What we know:
This protein is mainly α. The chain has one domain (2-93). Helix content is 61%, strand content 0%. The chain is built from 3 helices and no strands. The longest helix is centred in the first third of the chain and has 27 residues, at 2-28. The termini are far apart. One of its GO terms (biological process) is DNA replication.
Amino acid sequence: QLAEGRRSCEEIDRQNRQSRAEKIFGRAGIQRLHRGCSFANYRIQNDGQRHALSQAKSIAGELDTGCTNFVFSGNPGTGKNHLAAAIGNRLMNAGR
């Protein structure tokens, strides 16, 4: 019975964590499509995207120190949404 109760508690904890994460992502406006976006899975196809990735990582670091605004601009299909979501995902996963 004890082991069964422990498994039940662990499952409830897992469901609660998942529910909290869903609420956080929902409030952040990050859609399901972009919830898996990270710097690691951003596909670089040219030097411009390499530079954009570097800048996004820098912005993520600056947000930890108080910078609160940034703007991405560029042509369609260059990864702006992916990088913005990667920044948000990194911050939320760090509890920010």
